[in-house]
Amino acid sequence: MHEPVLHHYPSSPFAEKVRLILGFKQLSWRSVIVPRVMPKPDLLALTGGYRRTPVLQIGADVYCDSALIARRLEAEKVFPTLFPEEQAFNVAGLAAWADEFFFLHAAALAFQPEAVAQRFAQSPPGELKAFVEDRAALFSGGTFERLPLEQARQQWPTLMARLQRQLEHADGDYLFGEPSLADFAVAHPLWLLRAMPLTTALVDAWPAVAAWLDRVLGFGHGSSSGLSAADAIDIARAAIPASLPNEPSIEGGDWHVGQRVAVAATDYGVEPLEGELLHAGFEELILRREDPRAGVLHVHLPRLGFRVVGR
């Protein structure tokens, strides 16, 4: 058994979502810190071009996107579950809404000019400029559109009032009574806002939400130990990818299993990665690729939010 390896950086909100899931599952994991901005040569040796954070590695299998990572961690340790059986559809739907629509509002508020100045106040000269240029490239070419700050400010009270009411009437301490993926997906945008004094009140002004967020953050991050990027690549090279899922493949109109394809996110970070398509399941696509440093890898990507182009 290979221990999960998380490639992340501390201030990444989507990485915080996964770190909290690791804590909820009480899993031990290895931590590889990646650069916040490009270039990321060690990460790309594993992913083949996918640059977003976080990435989960288990041996020679590489999982991209926090939604798919959550499902892989669910398979790693089924209990406690992220998908309570009677609410699995609702949980997945709310989590997707939080990762996109809700996060879009939180990001607009968290990266308003005054908050950015606070966030980078102690950073080395030039780091803010590099971050702004990197994010401009990251959000270029996809369907993602930044939400205007004034629109986010106008709509935020509505979103928080709805969240407050849900928590006040939930049959338990979490969004659907017991903890689920929905809690971690809604929590990480609020964690981002709480990180800066300028935006903390946007969360803490809502008592039920603030108390719930404290409970979610209380799961912690599990047990982690550091690992170098070079060692993570060595682990991948020495490992053999896991067996493919025992489920049918659902192919597209102009691409099929066994074909060389390019897969890319549709919203942002749209740089494609190429490989042989091994599996196209209900939730994930699996590509085989080979890297001079990392060897033979299986790269796993979500089916939702990604496009496939046959080569």
TrEMBL record:
<dbReference type="Pfam" id="PF13417">
    <property type="entry name" value="GST_N_3"/>
</dbReference>
<dbReference type="InterPro" id="IPR004045">
    <property type="entry name" value="Glutathione_S-Trfase_N"/>
</dbReference>
<dbReference type="Pfam" id="PF13410">
    <property type="entry name" value="GST_C_2"/>
</dbReference>
<feature type="domain" description="GST N-terminal">
    <location>
        <begin position="2"/>
        <end position="81"/>
    </location>
</feature>
<protein>
    <recommendedName>
        <fullName>GST N-terminal domain-containing protein</fullName>
    </recommendedName>
</protein>
<dbReference type="InterPro" id="IPR036282">
    <property type="entry name" value="Glutathione-S-Trfase_C_sf"/>
</dbReference>
<dbReference type="InterPro" id="IPR036249">
    <property type="entry name" value="Thioredoxin-like_sf"/>
</dbReference>
